[in-house]
Structure formats: structure tokens, C-alpha cells
Amino acid sequence: MNKIVMGLLAATLTLLTPMTFAHGNKSVGIRSATNHEITAAFDIVQTRIKVDGPNLVFLQKVRANAGGVKPDPTGQLAGAEVFSYVWPTTLDSAAVGFEPKQGILALVLTAHPDFDDTPRYDENRDGDTGNDGHVWHSHWVVLTPDDTCGPGALKVKDILPGTKPKLPMTWPGLPLFIDSPGYEPELERKEVEVRVPLKDIGFNTSFHFDGVTAGLRINESIHNPLLCVIKIHDVASGDLSLPGKIDIKIK
Length: 251
Fold this sequence. Notes:
Layout: H1 2-11, E1 21-23, E2 27-31, E3 44-52, E4 55-62, E5 81-88, E6 104-111, E7 137-145, E8 154-156, E9 178-179, E10 186-188, E11 191-197, E12 206-209, E13 212-218, E14 227-235, E15 244-247
Antiparallel strand pairs: 1-2, 2-3, 2-15, 3-4, 4-11, 5-6, 5-13, 6-7, 7-8, 7-9, 8-14, 10-11, 12-15, 13-14
């Protein structure tokens, strides 16, 4: 994992020449070989981002059963697992309302039955149980390295006690650099998709990206680091060099 993390960090500073496929001159996606040693739901075969009207569409295609595998509930927050589909980007953290230059900004789809960090506005819906974290839902997160999570591992950046950093209006209240924007994902058969309004990222359509499937875990002590990346199932590029690119002029 150390080499993967180093590749990801380097990619935020240097844009590398990718082995990819192009959609005209507008965007560049990433094709990945299948790997039957990886669970089909997390075996990435294609990653791309495209513009569709007023939205950016983030897509991952997997070998099969997209969204069909979720963590088993444990009944407690400490040690709770999180399964995720991730698009790391070179967007600045300020693009979605965090302090600038905080780390690696990623769009994430997650499922975790043991705690709720979905948008606050959904808690009063008819029939809402107060914990719908088990349903696949979207986040923006800021990722940073932390060897406490394991050699060369990443975590969702903690908000340290006594600090009051700038946060998005839809921050869910956890002591993390995490946002719950409420983008409803679509997961069907082999494809994972989430639509992000261009206005939500300042109409920024020039950045690089990658695709990752990963497992995270809440620290047993519920303390810094609170949420660690503990397992990377698959990486679209193979080395987290962020070779995907979108560079579209909005007319």
C-alpha cells in the first residue's frame, strides 16, 4: 500500500502520461483488466467522468454485482467497517467548501450499517429510522497519509480538538473532513454512477482522477485517526497515478 499512496500523492503534484482511452478531445477515462482474485463487486474494469448537461457524472464499471456487497453490522461504532467506491481527484479541497490545500479531495460512495453520516435533511423523511448509513450514499472526503493506520496508509483527515476549520454547509457533524452532499447514486448490475452538479464544484471541469474500491474502519478507540483506509481492493490505474482527465470548456 505504501507504493500506492506515494503514487497518489505524487499525482497531485505532477500530471502523468496515462495509458487510457479518449472520448474525442473532451475527456480521458481509464480501462482496467479484470482480476478474478478480487470480489466481482469491487473489481474495477472502467472509470470515467463525463459532462451531462449541468452535471458531472462520475462512473465506475465493475465485473459484476455493483453495490451488492456491504459490511456486516457489528452493533457499535468502534471498529465499524465501511465499504466504498472512490474517485480521488486533483481538485483542491476548497472546491467543495473545505479549507484549501487540505489533502486529496475524493468523491466517495459508501455503505456502513453501524452509523449514520447521511445528510441531516433526510432524517425527518417519512419512515426514516434515524440510521440509513447502510444505504449506498455519497460523500466528499479529504484523504491524508497517516502511518497510525498502517505503513503508508491513508485516512479521512481528522478535525483536531479545539480547531474550527472551514467546512461545507452539509458537513454531517463528524470530527472529520467529510461532506454529505446528498447526491443519490445509481448502482445497477455492473455500473456505479453519481451525478454532481457542476455548480457544486465551481464549474471546475479541468482535473485528473482515478478509481478505487476500498474498505475503511472506524478506530476501536474512536479517536484520531478516526477513519482509516484498511484495505484497497482495486485501483483503476494500478498505481493511483490519477491518469484520468476531464478538460471541458463550458459554453
